[in-house]
Structure formats: C-alpha cells, structure tokens
Amino acid sequence: MKLPNFTNFEPLNQLKDQMGIPRDSYGSFPQVSEQASPSGAALPRAFILLKSGGRLDLLHPQPDAWTDEDLAIGLSRTYRWGGYSKWDLPLSVAQHSLTVLALREAEGPLTAREALQELLHDATEALFGGFDPIAPLKPHLGPAFASLDSRLQVAVDQRYRLPAWTEDSYARHKHADRLAAASEAYHVVGWTRDEMRSSLEISLDPLGEDPLVAPADIKPWEPWPPRTAMTLFFNRLTQLLDRAKVDDSLADLAKRFSLLPPQTRSRYNHWPSGSSLTDTLVYVEADDGSQSLEGVIVDGQRDEDGAFDIENIFTVFTTHSNADGELILCNGANCHVEIL
Fold first, then answer.
1. In angstroms, rounded to a whole number, what is the distance separating the alpha carbons of residues 178 and 161?
2. Residue scoring higher pLDDT (141 or 208)
3. How far apart are CA 203 and CA 182, in angstroms?
4. Are 132 and 106 in contact (CB under 8 A)?
5. Cα–Cα distance between 220 and 321 in angstroms, integer?
6. Do the Cβ atoms of 207 and 179 come closer than 8 Å?
7. What is the pLDDT of residues 67-108, one digit of tens each?
8. Residue 45 confidence (pLDDT) above 90
C-alpha cells in the first residue's frame, strides 16, 4: 500500500508554521522556556483555551493546566477509528477508556493508581486537541509528534501520580486495549471477522458481551452521546481519585505502623499494607461527639466475608493526636463508625 506524503499533513504543518519550523522537517519541537528570546521576541506558543478557562500550552504543558472535567470533555469529543462507525455516532476515547478499565478489573482487583493508569492511558489524545490518529498512521507523523505526545504524557503522569508500567502490568494493559479494539472493530465500526484478520491484522476474537453496562436507551456496543460519555468518565475518574486519597492515607499509616517496636506490632493480627484492597480506613466518632479519629483497623472480629465487624470491638492505629501513631481500642456499639 502506497502511503500519502505526510509532509502535506495540514494540521501538523499549521502547528509548524506557528512555531517557525520548516514544513518538510520532522525534527523535534523546540524546547519552550518561560523566558523571552534574547531578541525580546515571544517564544512559540500553542494554546488551547479549555472550558474551565485554563490555558493548556501544548509546547510546555503543565500538570495543573486542566481540570478533571476538562479532560473528561476532551476525551468524550475525541473519536476512535477516524470518527467513523456503523452507528449514528462515533465511538469516543472516553467510552473506550472505560471499556479497557472494565476488562482489566474483570481480571482481578486493581489499586486506585493502577485503575487510574488504565482509565487515563489515552488521556494525551484529549489534551492534544481531540486528535486520535489510527494506529498505522502514528509512525508516519514523525518524531515531532512523538515528542509532543511524550511531553503531554509526562504532565498526565505527574498530575495523577500514575505508577510506572511494569513488564507484567503493561502486557496486561495491552491485551485489554487490543481486545477492546478488536471488539470495537467488529461491533462498532462494522469490520467482518475475516476483514479484521486480513486488513487490520487483528488476531484476537471480539467479545460477545459488552463489558460496560449500557446507559438507558442505549444498546450494547452503541457509541454514547458526548455528554453521556463525559459524565460517566468524569464520575469514574472522581471515584478513583477519591480512592487514591484513601490509599495515600493508608500508605502513610502503614509506614508509621512499621516504625513501632516489634513487640508492640506483634500484638495485632492485621498489619496495614497501605492499600485499600486489604486495609480498612475508618472514621470513628463517639456517640456524644466528644472524640473522633481517623485510622486503619489493625485488629478485631471479622464477619463471614472476612470484613471487620465495626459494630463490635476493634483496634485502630491512628496519627490523629500523635504523629508517631497510637493504638485506640474502639467499641463500635458506642460509636459512629464510617468506612472511608
């Protein structure tokens, strides 16, 4: 197949014009400084004005330049498969991202940051300005495009404190991403199974059942309207960020618990690990409102599912009144207990 001449790719050429780069050059974008040039001329800028009113400079992206709602809006209006589908609407990257997360969570529980890593794996496409080129096109956009995408990814990683991919986590992610793509090619775009293999070189079989619960009046695999995609993506992102805050608190408590004398720690049956997958963070307040604390349960009775019985007696490790930590015996029957 003869590929087109990408030196004539107009969106990229327009960006190069703004930056003073020759149209036939695929070199790296110039580094952007906060300072003016020695001549006093303004340095290249490529601003996007977001709904929040924030400005995202694509050439010097800052992690605080956008809001979570800005990102959700951008992903809901960024379309996969070149913007085409057999349905009335194209498939948004927001819906695709939720699909990939659902596939990974079906394999087993993820920490909050691991789930965020899956949900935000295509976040740069929204920040770029809603541009999601089909995969075979990307290598032909040159190192300038790759450099810009890399800068945006660094900003996303810093903003959401995403963990680095391990060999295993990346392999699992790519399988889920490719399985989602195979299913989209068949159910959303309309490629036949034979065409998927011969033309797209997709070897995975598409799923039968949509891993996402379809919103009201929407069929399985049907692309969602942008507002629906934005809302559902934003809600899931908010939930995971709230979980991540809990994990951050648990990690700090686990670190401080590990500094207690060994003979003290040995008295308790559940040493905190720093993850909400295994630890229970609680807010405890006396019925009369006289005392309250936030901490992690380290001992107590459990129910048949293995969860701590917060209606009974349990022990909490907390740094509420002592930065080094202290252990408080609580009686759930005489307190208001909320699992955070």
1. 25
2. 208
3. 8
4. no
5. 52
6. yes
7. 999 999 999 999 999 999 999 999 999 999 999 999 999 999
8. no
Q: φ and ψ at 4, to 5 degrees?
A: -70, 165
**Single pTM value for the model:** 0.80
User: 153-182: per-residue pLDDT in tens?
Assistant: 999 999 999 999 999 999 999 999 999 999
Q: Which two tokens stand for residue 3?
A: 């590929």
Token pair recorded at residue 139 = 């290598």
Structure tokens at 294: 């936030």
- Three-state SS string across the chain, please? CCCCCHHHCHHHHHHHHHHCCCCCCCCCCCCCCCCCCCCCCCCCCCEEECCCCCEEECCCCCCCCCCHHHHHHHHHCCECHHHCCCCCCCCEHHHHHHHHHHHHHHHCCCCHHHHHHHHCCCHHHHHCCCCCCCHHHHHHHHHHHHHHHHHHHHHHHHHHCCCCCCHHHHHHHHHHHHHHHHHHHHHHHCCCHHHHHHCCCCCCCCCCCCCCCCCCCCCCCCCCCHHHHHHHHHHHHHHHHHHHHHHHHHHHHHHHHHCCCHHHHCCCCCCCCCCCCCCCEEEEEECCCCCEEEEEEEEECECCCCCECCCCEEEEEECCCCCCCEEEEEEHHHEEEEEC
Query: 318 forms bridges with which residues in the sheet?
Result: 295, 326
Torsions phi, psi for 296 (to 5 deg): -110, 135
